[in-house]
Amino acid sequence: MNAYRRLLAQAVRMLLPGILLLLCSGAARAQQFLYVDCSGTNLYAYPSINAALSNAGPGTSIFVTGTCNESVSLFGQNAFNLGAYAGQTATINGGISINKSENVFLYGLNVTNPSGDGIVVGSSGGIVVDNCNSTGNAGVGLNVGGMSDVAVTSAGTFDYNIRGGMIIGGNSSVSIFTWNGLTVDIRSSQGNFSTLGHTNITNNTSGPGSNPGYGIELLGGARAQVGALTGPNTITGNQAGGAFLQENSEISFWAGTSVNVIQGNGPVGVAVGLGSQATFFNSAQINGHSSAGVDLYANAQGYFFGTNSVQGNGSKASGEALTYLSNRIHPIECLRSRGLRLRNIFTTETNGR
């Protein structure tokens, strides 16, 4: 379970700065605290986040209440916290952009930008988005680029956005560590995405702004780890398909204590092409698609380990469901049941038998 160990190590690296800043370190106790009340009730607080930012520097924590009708830009910040009080939420009707910053912690924010992306991160590291929702945006819920790294923690929703839930590019990475559930769709080109569980990728449809309607779309050598360790992951109801990989991209679905469910996603569950690779390690359940459960074509590679189920996809020549056991793929049965469609693939077996 090397993937599991890598994800845990990454979780510690990304969450530790925020935890230390908020709870433990002497620097946290000595930093500057500013208070914003966008409702105007507290006359002793700043009336907007931007008013507080004019007096904020590195190491500042800004606590927000009410609904703020503004966009917020964080540039060159370090050890900076912005969010609601613990256990509460605040609303921003506008966007949040983070650029050339390190160790920024966002908490309890409901972001809706009627004219663009919700949260944008560029050329920044150690960004933590905790218990935040970015929904109903004219652009993307979370847009990450410029070799940035972002951790999405606790819970959150990134859906009902015109151009999709998350876009990850420019050799950036987004890691999800949730225990209360997260709803999102992911598009990545030359980026990396990972989750340890409790992630729902559902009901995405094709629409304006080049939103293709896939649950997960990986291009340009993108990488994704979909781990069901802390809870199940569900990819369902996506119009174009559950996951779509091209251009030497890779995805791994693996289970620790739970399952990965890929169900009822338009024509295909997982489509892998143009030299890309998909790996299924234990407890992948792929069913309810009008065509293939897994479609491999154009020098794609597919690996199945342990017990995975691909059944009830498309029209069957036989009434039998298809289940992969003991690390072995049976191409004839795959074709017969339409569970796995093979089109000029590179390899279909993993154990040499």
Q: What structural class do you assign from the helix and strand content? A: mainly beta
In angstroms, what separates the terminal alpha carbons?
Answer: 23 Å
Overall form: elongated
State the helix count: 4
The number of domains is 1
- What is the rounded Rg? 22 Å
User: What number is the mean pLDDT?
Assistant: 84
| Strand runs, count | 32
Amount of beta strand:
35-45%
Give the helix proportion (percent range).
Answer: 10-25%
Largest sheet: 21 strands, mixed
Poorly predicted runs are: 19-30, 316-338, 344-353
Task: Characterise the protein shown here.
By secondary structure, this protein is mainly beta. The protein has one domain (2-30, 67-79, 87-343). Helices cover 11% and strands 45% of the residues. The protein contains four helices and 32 strands. It has helices spanning 2-24, 26-30, 49-53, 331-337; strands at residues 33-37, 61-65, 67-68, 72-75, 78-84, 90-93, 96-99, 102-107, 109-112, 119-122, 127-134, 142-145, 149-158, 166-169, 173-184, 186-189, 192-195, 199-202, 214-219, 223-228, 233-236, 241-245, 250-255, 260-263, 270-272, 277-281, 284-287, 294-297, 301-305, 308-311, 322-324, 340-343. The strands form two sheets. It has a 21-stranded mixed β-sheet that branches. Strands 4-7-10-12-14-16-19-22-25-28-32 form an eleven-stranded parallel β-sheet. It is elongated. Residues 19-30, 316-338 and 344-353 have low confidence and may be disordered.
Please sum up the structure shown.
This protein is mostly beta strands and 353 residues long.
